[in-house]
Amino acid sequence: MLINDLIKGNKKFREARFPKYEGDIKELVEKGQKPEILFAGCSDSRVTPDSMLDTKPGDMFILRNVGNFVPPYNPDDDYHGSSAAIEYAVSVLEVKHIIVCGHSHCGACKSLYQNLNDSPNLIHVKKWLELGKRAKEYTLLAIQDKSDKEKLYRATERISIVHQMENLLTFPEVERKVKNGELQIHGWYYRIEDGTIEYYDGEECSFKPLKEN
């Protein structure tokens, strides 16, 4: 895809799709955004939240990063982009739901099993991937047949979602609101090969097909 394709795409959006949202967007401009959902997903180009969930502008506050990882709460004076997005969504926008959405064929989870020490240009990537270390360790304990790499990767992707959900609870305001019933955390797994989504059932510690309530 070329930049010119994006320019044409914007023209098509303004002519064909924007008019459908014009009333909603006018209200969003005048009154501000008030999404009830924080969607924490991966930066992977194959994961398209608005398309796969059929949402419109204003429905979701979206955080995307490598591996849909959630860094644990760390109140220092460093730069914390993902943490800032979480804090803003929870404390300012007052979202009611946080969805941690992992996906199949995740490059970040696969990279946990690769040696990146010879990649001097990936300093920040290597540090960031440390957030997936626990998921890798748990997967290696849970999977007996480690020769099937694809099975290993798929298991790591799902287990990582659970650990990122746990990291969310290290944020004091997230923990408080969850305990008070003001906020719910959801773990979703998106299969990019067929578009289906699984959800994490905490009581049974397993992923199940997503269904309407």
Please specify the SSE layout and strand pairing.
Elements: H1 3-31, E1 37-42, H2 49-53, E2 60-65, H3 81-92, E3 97-103, H4 107-111, H5 123-128, H6 133-142, H7 149-168, H8 172-179, E4 184-190, E5 197-201, E6 206-209
Parallel strand pairs: 1-2, 1-3, 3-4
Antiparallel strand pairs: 4-5, 5-6
Helix pairs in contact: 6-7
Give an account of the 3D structure.
By secondary structure, the protein is of the alpha/beta class. It has helices spanning 3-31, 49-53, 81-92, 107-111, 123-128, 133-142, 149-168, 172-179; strands spanning 37-42, 60-65, 97-103, 184-190, 197-201, 206-209. The protein starts with a helix and ends with a strand. 26% of the residues are buried.
Provide a compact summary of the structure.
The protein is α/β, with parallel strands linked by helices. Helix content is 45%, strand content 16%.
Radius of gyration: 19 Å
How much of the sequence is in beta strands? 15-25%
H/E series: HEHEHEHHHHHEEE
- Find the structural class using helix and strand composition: alpha/beta
**Separation of termini?**
39 Å
Q: Give the overall average pLDDT.
A: 95
**How many β-strand stretches?**
6
- What is the general shape? globular
User: How much helix, percentage-wise, in residues?
Assistant: 40-55%
Poorly predicted ranges: none
The biggest sheet, with number of strands, parallel, antiparallel or mixed sense and barrel status, is: 6 strands, mixed
Question: How many alpha or pi helices?
Answer: 8
